[in-house]
Amino acid sequence: MDDNAWKEAFRNEIMIRGILQFWSLDIEENFQKHQGWLQYIVYSFARFCCQLCGRCWASSKVHILFQIKSQRNSRQVKMHIFKQKCKICTNGYYEHPMFMPENIEIAMGMLVNRISERIYNTPKENLPSKSFISDGRQDGPHDCSNCEGCEQGICTRNSNRNECFGETQPPFHVVNWERGMNSHRMEWIFFQDTHQDNHQDAQDTHQDAHQNDQDSLDSKSLSNCCCVIL
After folding, report:
1. pLDDT at 154
2. Is the pLDDT of residue 10 over 60?
3. Distances from the Cα of 205 to the Cαs of 3, 199, 211, 218, in angstroms?
4. Sign of the dihedral through C-alpha 6, 8, 11, 16
5. Could you give the count of Cα atoms lying within 13 Å of 7 in the half-sphere of its Cβ?
6. Angle CA 13–17–21, to nearest 5
7. What is the pTM of this model?
8. Are 18 and 33 in contact (CB under 8 A)?
9. Which of 57, 145, 151, 183 falls between 20 and 30 A from 93, CA-CA?
C-alpha cells in the first residue's frame, strides 16, 4: 500500500477546503482504538489478491477507519484500512486492498468534509460530495467471516454481530450512525468498554429499585393521611 498517495490526497483536500491549521495523518498497520478520539468510518471499493493461491476478488465493503483528535496545538488523524482473507485458502493471510487513485481521493475528501463539518462548523450543504467508483463487479455478498473489520466489530451488520460471530458482546458498538451517498455508508462511532456499559446498567437498575421503594412509601403515607382525615 502506498502511504504517500493517501497523505498527498489528504494534504490536497485540506488545502482545497481552505483549512489553515496543520493536520497530520498517520496510517497504522495494526488496528488500535484510541479512547476519547472521534471515530469515522467509510466503506470503499477495492480489490484483493491472495499471495498463496493467486486468487483475486473485489469488495465494496472495504472498511477504512479514521480516528480524529483536535487540540489547541495538535490536530491528528489515525487511519487504519482493514484487510480481508481469501475464502479458499484455509491458512490464508490478511491481504492489503488495492484502491483506485480516484477512490483514495474520494475517501480523503469524505474525511476532510467531516473534519470541516465537525471541527470547523462548516455547513454540510457547502461541502462537495462524491461516491466511490466500482471497478467491475464484486464477488458475491460481503464475506464477513474473512473480513478483519467484521472480526473487530466494525461492520454494517453491527446489530446482528452477536449472532454472526457467536459472541456474547462485541468489543464496542455504534451509538450514532449516518447513511452516506449511494453505494457507500458512513458512520460516527465511539468506542465503549463493555464493563462500563454493564456498570451503568447496574446503576440504572439500582436507581429504578430505589425510585420504586420511594413511590411505595409515598403511596403508603398518602393512604395513612387519608385515614386520619376520614
Report:
1. 80
2. yes
3. 49, 10, 10, 20
4. negative
5. 13
6. 90
7. 0.68
8. no
9. 183
Rounded to the nearest 5°, which phi and psi values hold at 183? -85, -10
Closest to 144 (Cα-Cα) out of 63, 80, 203: 63
Cα four-point dihedral sign 153, 27, 177, 43: negative
- Which of 125-134, 170-179, 187-196 is the least confident region? 170-179
Q: What is the pLDDT of residues 129-154, one digit of tens each?
A: 888 988 766 667 888 889 999 988 88
What nine digits make up the cell of 21? 491549521
> 189 falls in which pLDDT band (50, 70, 90)?
very low
Cell (9 digits) for 113: 468534509
